[in-house]
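Lab notebook, bench 4. Still working through the backlog of constructs that have no structural model yet. Next entry is a single chain of 133 residues. Request: give me the structure tokens for it.
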Amino acid sequence: MSKTKEFVLATQTDPIRATMTSDDNEYVVHFDATDWFENADEDAVRALAGIGWMRDYEADAVAEHFDRRANPTMREAFRHIRGTRCGFEVTVNDKDALEWLKNFRPEWYENVVGEFGEPLNSGTEWDDWRQTE
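Model written out:
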């Protein structure tokens, strides 16, 4: 059994924290999902909020965005996932996401909070990311 490979990809001071974990726990990648939000449309963001910001295809699309962008760490993790056919789970920190929406897409924020309510999960294991940089 090999040791889990854990990476932190922080790109800004206040990231939208997200975590991708391979189903075999070989890879854990903590990453800043802001670029996905900057490129997503409102329907994609609402779909992500609708599944609780985690563990479904809408959340998987956030990590897959960075694989398509040729991020070396994500590509390595996805090579492993595809090679072993093990799958993966993604969790986006809902408080970070809603804070970003409030600041940069206020109309979307109102729509998401109006439909799905305030954050519930805040689920990411990347709570002390600044210490890991």
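Notes after review: Residues 5-126 form one domain. The mean pLDDT is 84. Flag for follow-up if needed.
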